[in-house]
């Protein structure tokens, strides 16, 4: 099998705070292949943006990769200097659409001028070639080539977002990291953006790391998915396997918290409680306090990441009760409560 494009292995990222070390990402592992669309989902504060920033070398000054590796085409890049990352990796190999990117467009500069600035820093290409590349990408994201010299305010919100995607793509990177690229847009605009992302897959063979709190978007547009809760990857695998057969309580409850076009209309799940404060090492399941099925061992060590037990070898979950939790959940949410509900098991301690 060919080497993955990006391989994140056992990655822990921490921030120095006044109260000590905060762990934002704990022992995260996943890989992305050429042309693969990979979705990273989880609620706010789960560590998604931190992972993205660690990959691109854009952590805040108080952040650090404490352990683990990030390999790009087999080369470890987590310790590269900012200069090396800028010269060799950023924009040309991996580009990044940060959260709130719409405000990152400079209102005083034409989009083409912003592209020239990026192109001049990261490549030796002549200006005319940079402009040509931008025109080609404008076309792919559904903007008229003639509009590369417009100012951002001459575009609608959805068009601005597509201009940002064009800026992330025009140097033909292998991997685009898009952090909540459609959050500020209405549903129709979101839909248009995702149609254009599909074209990227077909026409450019680019890989995508799509970060969003909205897992329904990932189920519609990605090949694989990882679901994060409070620094830990709870579950990951192909989108089809995780959609059909979620094993981690956070994975299935989170899935049920969003509408799903593949399924009949239903009430949306509400996940009670809040993620814990993660000071120091996360040597327990970070979902245990919110999980109705938590067993004592969930708090006695970080749960090992193990096969979810289906046909997808990449489908893994970090739950010690992975074999029974979903059945417990279903019996709990079924209309007839026969006394074996998850809540009653959690309350009586039976079944542990
Ligand atoms: N510079 C920082 N200093 C201290 N803590 C930080 C810093 N940046 C992020 N954090 C903390 O790290 C944790 C993970 O944050 P992160 O932004 O990576 O999560 P996220 O899943 O991307 O959330 P969101 O979708 O809201 O951006 C949170 O507890 C957050 O408060």
TrEMBL record:
<feature type="domain" description="ABC transporter">
    <location>
        <begin position="6"/>
        <end position="255"/>
    </location>
</feature>
<keyword id="KW-0547">Nucleotide-binding</keyword>
<keyword id="KW-0813">Transport</keyword>
<dbReference type="InterPro" id="IPR050388">
    <property type="entry name" value="ABC_Ni/Peptide_Import"/>
</dbReference>
<dbReference type="Pfam" id="PF00005">
    <property type="entry name" value="ABC_tran"/>
</dbReference>
<dbReference type="Pfam" id="PF08352">
    <property type="entry name" value="oligo_HPY"/>
</dbReference>
<dbReference type="GO" id="GO:0005886">
    <property type="term" value="C:plasma membrane"/>
</dbReference>
<dbReference type="InterPro" id="IPR027417">
    <property type="entry name" value="P-loop_NTPase"/>
</dbReference>
<keyword id="KW-0472">Membrane</keyword>
<dbReference type="GO" id="GO:0005524">
    <property type="term" value="F:ATP binding"/>
</dbReference>
<dbReference type="InterPro" id="IPR013563">
    <property type="entry name" value="Oligopep_ABC_C"/>
</dbReference>
<dbReference type="InterPro" id="IPR017871">
    <property type="entry name" value="ABC_transporter-like_CS"/>
</dbReference>
<dbReference type="InterPro" id="IPR003593">
    <property type="entry name" value="AAA+_ATPase"/>
</dbReference>
<protein>
    <submittedName>
        <fullName>ABC transporter ATP-binding protein</fullName>
    </submittedName>
</protein>
<keyword id="KW-1003">Cell membrane</keyword>
<feature type="compositionally biased region" description="Polar residues">
    <location>
        <begin position="330"/>
        <end position="352"/>
    </location>
</feature>
<keyword id="KW-0067">ATP-binding</keyword>
<dbReference type="InterPro" id="IPR003439">
    <property type="entry name" value="ABC_transporter-like_ATP-bd"/>
</dbReference>
<feature type="region of interest" description="Disordered">
    <location>
        <begin position="329"/>
        <end position="352"/>
    </location>
</feature>
């Amino acid at each position: 099998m060919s080497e993955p494009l990006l391989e994140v292995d056992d990655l822990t990222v921490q921030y120095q705070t006044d109260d000590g070390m905060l762990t934002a990402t704990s022992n995260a592992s996943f890989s992305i292949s050429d042309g693969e669309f990979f979705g990273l989902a989880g609620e706010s504060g789960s560590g998604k943006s931190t992972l993205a920033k660690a990959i691109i070398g854009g952590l805040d000054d108080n952040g650090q990769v404490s352990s683990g590796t990030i390999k790009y085409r087999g080369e470890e890049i987590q310790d590269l200097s900012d200069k090396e990352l800028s010269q060799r990796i950023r924009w040309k190999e991996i580009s990044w659409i940060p959260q709130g990117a719409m405000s990152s467009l400079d209102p005083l500069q034409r989009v083409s001028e912003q592209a020239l600035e990026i192109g001049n820093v990261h490549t030796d290409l002549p200006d005319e070639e940079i402009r040509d590349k931008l025109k080609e990408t404008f076309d792919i994201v559904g903007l008229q080539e003639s509009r590369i010299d417009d100012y951002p305010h001459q575009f609608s919100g959805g068009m601005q977002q597509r201009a940002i995607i064009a800026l992330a793509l025009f140097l033909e990177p292998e991997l685009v990291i898009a952090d909540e690229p459609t959050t500020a847009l209405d549903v129709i605009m979101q839909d248009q953006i995702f149609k254009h992302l599909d074209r990227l897959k077909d026409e450019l063979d680019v890989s995508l790391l799509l970060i969003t709190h909205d897992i329904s978007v990932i189920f519609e547009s990605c090949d694989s998915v990882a679901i994060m809760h409070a620094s830990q990857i709870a579950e990951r695998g192909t989108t089809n396997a995780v959609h059909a057969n979620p094993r981690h309580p956070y994975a299935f409850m989170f899935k049920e918290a969003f509408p799903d076009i593949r399924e009949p209309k239903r009430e949306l799940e509400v996940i009670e409680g809040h993620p814990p404060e993660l000071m120091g090492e996360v040597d327990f399941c970070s979902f245990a306090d919110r999980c109705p099925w938590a067993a004592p061992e969930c708090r006695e060590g970080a749960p090992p990441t193990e096969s979810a037990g289906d046909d997808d070898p990449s489908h893994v979950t970090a739950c010690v009760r992975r074999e029974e939790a979903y059945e417990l959940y279903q019996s709990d949410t079924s209309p007839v409560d026969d006394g074996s509900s998850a809540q009653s098991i959690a309350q009586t301690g039976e079944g542990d």
